[in-house]
Structures are given as C-alpha cells and as structure tokens.
Amino acid sequence: MKTKYIYTLCIMLSVALCLTSCLKGNDDEIDYSQYDDMAITSFAITAINKYTTTTTSSGKDTTTMATLTTGLPVFTIDHYKQQIYNRIPLSAGCDLKKVLASITSKNSGTIVLKSLISDSLFYYSSTDSIDFSQPREIRAYALNGSGFRAYTVTLNVEPENATTKQWERVADEENVPEALYQDFGIQRNIFDGDEGDTFRLSKDGFNTWTVELLGQGEDASLLPTDGIAWVSFPYSASINTDYELLVGSCENDEKACTVWRKIVEKDIPETAPRWVNIPMTFSQDYYLPKMGTLSLVYYNSNVYAIGDDGNIYKSRDGGLTWKITTDFTLPEELGSYHIKAATDEKGELYLRDLDNGQLWHLINLSEAQ
Predict the structure, then answer these.
(1) Pairing of β 274-277 and β 136-141
(2) Residue spans of beta strands (DSSP E) within 24-82
C-alpha cells in the first residue's frame, strides 16, 4: 500500500469534484459532488490468518496456519462514540498485523487509514492487508471535501494461553446447574391461523411447555424429534437481543442434525419471534452430526455442541457451520461420552456422566490457585 499524505488526498478530492461537475449532463443525473456525508456504514473481516501450535507425544511443537474467511465475528459501529469493534472476540492465535477487511462508507466517501506511528495517511484497499494489532484510526472523507469523520477500530481477540483449563470432580449436586438434570422436548401442534404454524417446547424435562411460532413457510417436519438441545445467548449484532438455537435429529436427514434459530428482541416485546430453519446447504459440509445425546452450551462467548461421539463442535456463525475444536477437551476419566453439559449463571461449564452420575466442573487453574 502506497503512502499518501494529506495534501495528496485533498488534491484527489478536488479533482474528483471537478470531474463530477464536468460529467453531469442532464437533470436526471445525481451530482455526487454535493454529498457531505462522513460515515463508515459497514466493516467486516474478509480474511485473517490463525496460527495454532500443538505438542506431539515426543514433546515437539508444531505450528500450523489456517486462513479464516468464514465464521468471523460481526462488528459493531458506534457512530456516536466513533468506535468500531467486535463483541465476540476472534480466536486466539489470529494474526492482527495482516488483516483483509471490507469497509464501506456512505455515498462512496473516500476511506483513509492513519499510520500507527505517524500522521501519514493511506488510501484503503480491500486487497491490501491492514495492521490492526493496536487500535487504529480510520477516516471517512465527504465527497464534497467538507471534512471527515474519524473512527477508532479495535479488534478484540481471545487471550492466548491466558489460563490452563482442567476438569475437577464435583461431589455436591446442589452446586451444579439444574439443566444437567433436565431434558428438552418438542410437541408438534400444527394448525392454520393468524399466528401461523406452532409447536410446543419444554426445557425442563416436560414439566412446563411454551408455545413457539414457526416462520412463514417453514416446514414443521424439519423440527427435531430426538437428541434435542437448545441454547440462548446475547446476539452480537444487536444490543438487548438474544439469539436462540434449537438442534436435534429428524427423519429428513440420516447424518446431520436439523438446526433452527430464533432472534428475540427484548426491546420489542410485542413482536413475537419466530423459528427459522437453517438449510443444510449453508453448512458447506461442516454440519453437526446426529447423536443420541447432545448438549448446546454458550461458554466463553462461543457456542459449543457436546455429544456422544467424543468430539466438541464449535459454531462461530450462529449455527450455520460446526467444526471440531480443541478449545477444551472432555475429562479423560469418563467411562463413555453419554453425557449432559450445561453452564451455570456465571457461565462456568459442567458435565454430568449419565451412566454413573459423576459430575465435573471445568476450572481455570490460574483462578483456582
């Protein structure tokens, strides 16, 4: 990326104004040179490298690199505070010094990056990598040259090896989440009416039921019938909004779970949220396998699926794709993977072995000491 100083930017803006004025030929054309908008309208990471170091049984460290292009967090743009940031952090090991980003401005205003070490300015290009290893200023210049608005972009990332996690046995059942002893159930209750198709959902072992609405045109036959799991967590793209996932096995697919999602806007209680099915075509072969017992948990700002195949699956895109992760592992002492998982009010993770009743708690050693 070539360095451009502020006077160069001003010259280019002036030339653009002149060209726009000359090209205007009739009353139907829009004179973009009159726009004084100064705002970033969207920001997204399109590619970032992630480095992972693993240790072999012989004690040798091996580092691998993967380029992430999907499942990346959504960014919030606060125009009042002039800040851009991601609520859900990037995975540990992501290289913040070389990031490809898609940035747009209102009415195609000029986007400029400020140097991290001086007052020099750089034109933004979607094909040039950007160093976001520290908060960085991005400016949106108005097309008419009247000024600019500066935003501070901060990329939040999970701390790398900040804590060491370890499972410990729990003896007292009173200190674990009640959800470890409760199952999910669904009753289909399909009828035609003003409210559309509905079904009933139980989250407490069939003691209580809530009436749930399906989105218009959704196929109720895709609702799960076995291995049902549900989770709710804050929706990063909107304040005071929850994102719910419902998964499980159904007859329509022999190998993959059916996945449903619902967005609950707490500020608009009069609007009834509806469940929408996520088609299998969206999974790009990274689907959640069907399992006899399955749990969904929201842990450390991420969604995980834990089932009886011994793997832990992570979704970073709201349930579209599920990939095996090593963010944490299951206790080695488990006799089988016939388990139930849940988090408590503090967000701490617990397991229950359904075969022998043993309870486990995932702790951070640095916090326990």
Answers:
(1) unpaired
(2) 40-55, 61-68, 75-78
367: left (phi over 0), alpha (psi -120 to 50) or beta: alpha
**Region of poorest pLDDT, from 180-194, 281-295, 300-314:** 180-194
* Helix H or strand E segment including 31: none
Strands 94-105 and 323-324: unpaired
Out of 1-10, 72-81, 113-122, 323-332, which region has the weakest mean confidence (pLDDT)? 1-10
Q: Find where tokens 């009933």 sit.
A: 200
First to last CA, the chain: 48
| 199: CB partners within 8 A, 6+ apart | 186, 187, 188, 189, 190, 211, 212, 214, 220, 223
Asked if residues 150 and 138 have their Cβ atoms less than 8 Å apart, the reply is: yes
b vs e for 315-344, b when ≥16 Cβ sit within 10 Å of the residue's Cβ? bbbbbbbbeebeeeebeeebeebebbbbbe
Which CATH code for domain 3-154?
2.60.40.2340
pLDDT above 80: residue 224 = yes
pTM above 0.85, yes or no: no
Please list, in sequence order, all residues whose beta carbon lies within 8 angstroms of the beta carbon of residue 56, skipping any fewer than 6 positions away.
62
Alpha carbon distance 203, 231 (integer Å) = 10
- Ranking 27-41, 81-95, 324-338 by mean pLDDT, the lowest is 27-41
What does the longest C-alpha to C-alpha distance in the chain come to? 81
Of 98-107, 208-217, 266-275, the poorest mean pLDDT is in: 266-275
